[in-house]
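Morning. Coffee machine broken again, so started the prediction first thing and wrote up yesterday's gels while waiting. Chain of 119 residues, entered below exactly as on the submission form.
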Amino acid sequence: METDNIVEKISSLIKKEEKISLLQKFLAIISYLGILSLLTMALKEKSKPVHFHVRQGVALFMAEIVCTLILVIPLIGWLIGFIGWILCVLSSFFGLVKAAKGKEWSIPVLGKLATKIKI
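Came back before lunch.
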């Protein structure tokens, strides 16, 4: 009887998800749109899911800047920069879709760096 109660409490904790308002979803979505990530960072929304997406958006924006700087290097820079841009666009798309669904998706490599960004 007591174990059923414990199992019920654990399952309720696992199923418990933070409700995200429409505004918070909107802020999470636009955080993946380049420089708009800095705007959402400046708003200082107090929601953990929004913070997660804003951090990733800012890290992605910094990666886009690095890819743009790499494009200046002739030949090899063009190739590496172009591949980097494609990866950034795909990551933005996947992050945007996950944010629209209210879920979190950590960008490979950048996701770990994004957790270090202070908001």
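The chain has one domain: 19-114. Going to sketch it on the whiteboard this afternoon.
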